[in-house]
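Objective 1.3, modelling of assemblies. Example input:
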Amino acid sequence: MAPLPLVPSAPDSPAPDAAGSPAPDAAGSPAGRPIVLVLMGVAGCGKSTVAALLAGQLGWAFEEGDSLHPDANVQKMAAGEPLTDEDRWPWLAKVADWVEETLDDGQDGIITCSALKRSYRDAINRRGSGVVFVFLSGSKETITARLAVRRGHFMPMSLLDSQFADLEEPESDEPEIRINVGPTPGVIAGEIIAELGLAGRADEENHGH
Ligand SMILES: Nc1ncnc2c1ncn2[C@@H]1O[C@H](COP(=O)(O)OP(=O)(O)OP(=O)(O)O)[C@@H](O)[C@H]1O
Ligand SMILES: O=C(O)[C@H](O)[C@@H](O)[C@H](O)[C@H](O)CO
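Predicted structure (tokens):
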């Protein structure tokens, strides 16, 4: 992975005020610098489940990427047809807008988005900083078993092969971490917090002081 944007390069760093803030948190990353986590991976890898847990624990802004799909996309998937790049671009633009608005507002945030291809991730991270892709990685067998028992979701299990076919796993020059989806959602959320050094970052503003 490229150096995580949690440790900012000097020119981007907020200038400390007279009191010396922003104070580094326990992991040494500066408080006050917003970051957006994009929980990504194929349908059923656990994005929504883990993101909701994380957002609750951290008190960060949260957006469910699936809710940004145009109706036509949802209907297409529900009918068992994979989305094309053309279908996805308008949706990815909305995801990218949410990411940018959150960062511009100075907020930390979490959004779910399958972000299957490198070009999609580059579009989402169009600013080139402030974004970390959290790739929830699991075998087709594991995820098939989970989708087989999931109820009340538009995405049919039959589309899983096409999701894996489209998946271009994040590469080492992207701002990414990879987390195995074998453990429970609580353990996975804890691993993400530990790996990114976020333990001290449940920021006061988001909790209303
Ligand atoms: N770590 C886990 N262990 C066991 N079951 C899990 C785990 N994470 C998620 N699940 C279950 O697997 C199913 C898929 O999870 P979830 O809906 O969060 O995936 P998703 O990636 O958001 O899917 P989609 O992209 O289709 O919306 C759900 O029924 C969820 O309860
Ligand atoms: O790019 C895609 O094909 C879609 O985003 C899907 O991944 C779904 O939105 C999601 O995973 C719902 O299950």
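Residues 5-32 have pLDDT under 50 and may be disordered.
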